[in-house]
Amino acid sequence: MTQKHTTPDGLVIVDKPSGFTSHDVVAKMRGIARTRRVGHAGTLDPMATGVLVLGVERATKLLGHLALTEKEYLGTVRLGQNTLTDDAEGEITSSTDASKVTREAIDAGIAKLSGAIMQVPSKVSAIKIDGVRSYKRAREGEEFEIPARPVTVSSFTVYDVRDAVAEDGTPVLDLVVSVVCSSGTYIRALARDLGADLGVGGHLTALRRTRVGPYKLDSAKTLDQLQEELTVMPIAEAAEAAFPRWGVDARRARLLLNGVRLEMPDEYADAGPVAVFDPEGRFLALVELHKGKAKSLAVFA
């Protein structure tokens, strides 16, 4: 009798290569992990590299809750050129000499794009407008507007300003930046809006995501490394890293698994999703406070 292959439940932290869509990485992981049950938390543009969190088997149930978390990026913003896609993938639509832009003006522009802001996503994005992906409408030459959405940019820092000359001979400035922001923030839209504010245009030439919530680049593996050895973060460890931990006794663990809504301690009142563990350290469920009781979001035991 042949032994059935079992894929462990958990998260795989991938260092996404440039040129791959997030869906490409999911498809590749389905082959590596030998399971159809693979999903990702938070899309990364094809040009971008870095942390992409995948869920395998039952951990796919965690993903929708992980996506609502903070992200951190390192990138390069080019001032002096606009592109169709707001990044280096799209054709250049305008070029303006940016060599006279001062550091003070850059810092003032960045201050306007920091904190709680309203952002219009790039037209070449995966956002749906009336059920159709924005990038599909853009490719078909359609005229349309994307409504601005609230996002939070908790940190937007310029590490270096470099003089450069674009391929068409335009003097440009390349800014090496780091951004910490809420999920749903488009870094290329920040580049576009900074360039617009400075009157010279701007786009993103490089982007690397260094963190998604608690999951950092130092724990990420390349697809080649994962092909050699599949490294899965066990589902209990992944939940403990991402959510507040609530330990319950054996009696309450049984009640919870039988569908009884437990009273939740006050300390979890504003915590959002909470990971529940039994006395043996088994991850039982993801719950949140609803009318004073623990409402199950997903059960894992």
- Overall geometry comes to elongated
Quantity of strands, as a count: 18
Mean pLDDT reading: 90
SSE pattern: EHEEHEEEHEEEHEEHEEHEHEHEEE
Kindly, what is the distance between the CA atoms of the first and last residues, rounded to a whole number of angstroms?
28 Å
CATH superfamily of the largest domain: Pseudouridine synthase
**CATH fold-level name of the largest domain:** Pseudouridine synthase
Output the number of helix runs.
8
What percentage of amino acids are in beta strands? 35-45%
Helical content (DSSP H or I, runs of 4+): 10-25%
| Total discrete domains | 3
Secondary-structure class:
alpha+beta
| Rg measurement, Å | 22 Å
Family: Belongs to the pseudouridine synthase TruB family. Type 1 subfamily.
Keywords: Isomerase, tRNA processing
GO biological process, one term: tRNA pseudouridine synthesis
Catalytic activity: uridine(55) in tRNA = pseudouridine(55) in tRNA
